[in-house]
């Protein structure tokens, strides 16, 4: 098999730069251009040793050392924990890219022209990948763990999503209403004086939703709110895979 060393090195340099950019994008960290070039250039060391008869263990250890140096040179070193996290994400991206290239090699006849085509289109792949990762990361940030204290004896734990579409207010005191699946609330434990009806409006109808006043709600074991209004959603209101939809008013408070 003929190996074009110059093309091989060029592709590996570009793919290493791709991985470093994707890692930086994941952490929303700006990378200086000269650090990116130095980091990707260090990656070439792990490809050069492939042409020498080293043992598999030696190659693996050498590549681990090179990858650590790539991350430190590109992103700098602040703490061991942060560098470790960056290294893990770098490895995850490497596995994804490696799996994609293996898939191409196994299912298609990949020649020099195709590799050049992939090289040209890589910026497009990078843009789409970074966009997808940002959307997923932003979505994950909207998930919260909730503790609802119904009374002194009853506390329930819920998975919540901060939904900017939830803009339901109790009209008299303009209090925000969080929405919870009705089946998760032991309504028998609620004082009848703490139950009220709140009007709501959708595209198809205007109706009333049963709400309860909860003494306390804790978000991610840090922020606490008192006298929270909880709307009980039956089959008509779909909450998807979440137990609760937080109100949009909580967005700024729990950042």
Report what the structure shows.
The protein has 255 residues and is of the alpha+beta class. The protein is built from six helices and eight strands; from the N terminus they run H-H-H-H-H-E-E-E-E-E-E-E-E-H. It has two domains: 5-140; 143-253, Cathepsin D, subunit A, domain 1 (Beta Barrel). The protein has helices at 5-26, 33-48, 56-75, 80-107, 112-140, 250-253, and strands spanning 143-149, 155-162, 169-170, 175-181, 195-201, 206-219, 223-233, 244-246. A six-stranded mixed barrel has the order 1-2-8-4-7-6. A hairpin with a 4-residue loop joins strand 3 and strand 4 (175-181). The longest helix is centred in the middle third of the chain and has 29 residues, at 112-140.
């Amino acid at each position: 098999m003929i190996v074009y060393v110059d093309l091989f090195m060029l592709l590996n340099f570009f793919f290493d730069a791709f991985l470093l950019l994707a890692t930086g994008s994941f952490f929303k960290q700006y990378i200086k251009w000269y650090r990116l070039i130095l980091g990707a250039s260090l990656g070439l060391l792990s490809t050069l040793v492939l042409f020498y008869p080293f043992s598999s263990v030696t190659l693996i250890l050498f590549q681990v050392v090179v990858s650590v140096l790539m991350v430190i040179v590109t992103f700098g070193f602040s703490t061991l924990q942060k560098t470790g996290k960056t290294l893990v994400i770098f490895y995850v991206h490497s596995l994804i890219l490696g799996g994609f290239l293996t898939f191409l090699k196994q299912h298609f006849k990949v020649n020099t022209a195709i590799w050049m085509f992939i090289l040209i289109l890589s910026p497009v792949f990078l843009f789409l990948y970074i966009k997808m990762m940002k959307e997923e990361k932003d979505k994950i940030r909207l998930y919260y763990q909730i503790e609802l204290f119904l009374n002194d004896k009853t506390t329930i734990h819920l998975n919540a999503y901060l939904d900017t579409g939830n803009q339901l207010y109790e009209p008299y005191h303009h209090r925000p209403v969080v929405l919870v699946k009705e089946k998760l609330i032991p309504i028998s434990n609620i004082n009848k004086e703490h139950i009220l009806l709140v009007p709501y409006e959708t595209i198809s109808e205007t109706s009333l939703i049963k709400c309860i006043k909860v003494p306390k709600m804790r978000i991610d074991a840090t922020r606490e709110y008192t006298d929270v209004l909880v709307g009980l959603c039956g089959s008509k209101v779909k909450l998807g895979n979440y137990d609760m939809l937080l109100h949009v008013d909580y967005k700024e408070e729990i950042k």
